[in-house]
Design goal:
alpha+beta; two-stranded antiparallel ribbon; 27% strand; disordered N terminus
Length: 78
């Protein structure tokens, strides 16, 4: 086994253990300002359609489609 691979996976495992669910996860929202992180659009939502979403459960997301002022936005990738 490559020693650097083992170290990388160990650091990754430790960082995941510090990730915790936010207290407003799953709460209905119409804007990200109502959430600790993002207001996540429902899967399959059309861009620019009126919709509500649910507060995303974590502070960071790789890619997420948000709802802002009640309108579904383009997918945001960090």
């Amino acid at each position: 086994m490559n020693p650097s691979t083992n170290v990388s996976s160990e650091l990754f495992d430790r960082s995941l253990s510090r990730v915790s669910l936010l207290t407003d996860a799953g709460v209905q929202c119409t804007d990200s300002s109502q959430c600790q992180s993002f207001c996540q659009a429902k899967e399959g939502s059309e861009i620019n359609s009126e919709s509500s979403g649910m507060c995303y459960g974590y502070e960071l997301a790789i890619c997420i489609q948000t709802v802002e002022d009640g309108v579904v936005q383009n997918q945001l990738c960090q």
